[in-house]
Amino acid sequence: MRALRILLVIAVVLGAIFVIVDRVAVHFAEGEAADRVRASEGLASTPDVDIRGFPFLTQVLGGSLDEVRVGISDYEAGAGEGGKTIRIADLRADLRGVEFSGDFGSAVADSATGTATIAYDELLRNAKAEPTQVAPGITAEVVALADGGNGKIKVALETTVLGTKLPVTVLSSVTVVDGNTVRVRADALPVLGGVEIAESRVRRITDFEQKIDGLPGGISLEKVQAAADGVDVTVSGKDVRLAG
Which InterPro entries does this entry report, sorted A to Z (predicted)? Predict the structure, then answer.
């Protein structure tokens, strides 16, 4: 019995040592991976990297990590031509089946899913930002975007009729086009200045698109929905490159 107790104590001690070594190793690996992602994506700050699964060391020996979670608080994505950018907030990605080199110089995930937020003021930057004539004596422009409830965006317009400013609002749907563009389109056209105006002229003001290029690792937009502080975005991708 005494020998059995000694063996049990030894097993517990060795198990505890293994757990400690495993956790130290994963903490070091998370730091290395975070530095690689920062360098690869040109980030201003170091992202959060959380390597999931236990034990970590056996995953390392196999050269593949089951799951890695990456969080980037602020990401500047491309916004179409002219070098414009758009700020993506709270980008969180869950990557699975991550194959990596020994020094984390390269890392590629089989698949990735995630979420992010685009603030309304960021979307507004690409809306019609100056008064546009829609009829003789009538101009209009988008001045604000907000949550309209039920997954809609409330688009606030300022219409000027013969020098008099009149506020107008319209509810719009937001969708993803081609995996890289957010489209905002009015559900119903507002009446501007109390006169009949061609739909094409009105939609030049109410409707717009925001292209988003160069998301980390080649992930793409999948779905968008209006929320309290901005547009909530769902992203996904295959063969997503974290580094290298």
Answer: DUF2993
